[in-house]
Amino acid sequence: MDTKEMDYDEEDSTAPDPDTLLAEANRRLIEAEIIVAATAAGYADPHDAVTLAANAVNINSDGQVEGATEAVAAFLEQKPYLAGQTQPRFTVPGDGGAGGTPLITREALKEMTPGEVNRARKQGLLDHLTNPGGRFQ
Question: Residue 66 in 3-state DSSP?
């Protein structure tokens, strides 16, 4: 027999088992759905949810993942420390720290109305953008 052609009646021991391939594909799909659900739920590290929720999630007869959102939400309710911490916004120096007036970013400035921009300018919240060599250096 030519090495390029193979008789399909012969059993090829090097070919992967279709059930094994399907199980691996399903595992990856479940993990991806859990990570998406955990990211949306606000987990600090969405990969933590895979370990916690993998056994509570399955694939239905239509090939759709079921239970990822519910499992992720349930674990976050039981273990709230898994939630990500919001990053503190940069505040005006000398304002006493947390709870101070946040500075406005260039991106936020683009979405502001002219009136909002004028009020922010009067409050000094744009100084870091308009006077980079000033008090913020």
Answer: strand
* Domain spans, the chain: 18-82, 87-137
Q: Is 137 exposed, middle or buried (0-12, 13-18, 19+ CB in 10 A)?
A: exposed
Tokens 């859990």 sit on residue: 34
Task: Report the C-alpha gap between 120 and 29 in whole angstroms.
Answer: 47
Instruction: Name the strand (E) or helix (H) holding 53.
Output: helix 46-53
Write down the pTM of the prediction.
0.53
C-alpha triplet 124, 127, 133: angle, nearest 5°: 145
pLDDT tens string 35-68? 999 988 888 888 888 988 888 999 999 989 999 9
Tens digits of residue pLDDT in 78-99: 888 888 765 444 444 444 444 5
